[in-house]
Known about the structure:
Elements: H1 2-17, E1 20-31, H2 37-45, E2 50-62, E3 65-74, H3 82-94, E4 99-111
Amino acid sequence: MHNDIQLLLSEEVDAERQEIGYETDCLLIYDKLIRKQKYVLNSLREIAGIRIVTVISPTEARGESQVVGIRLKYTPSREQTLLSYTAFLKRSILSTNGVLQVRFLHTTKVKL
């Protein structure tokens, strides 16, 4: 019995150490004449809270613009709700040089 309690307590401590974050799939539209994809994605990686930016679908050309599916993994600050962070995230992405539009498709909670 005593060992069972210790095991539960250690699992609880381990769970607290694991950071919970979020993963959002997006469609990103950017102007290839203004900025290349790798520079746009590198700029997204610099946004506060973003940990990983992954391309999840091939780039599709639409005239001068490019459409690419990306996955963002991030952790909002402790002071922000998910709703306020995603609003901040959208504003930050849209203010990135070369980005024309972003559409969030779905968000899930993940362990980082």
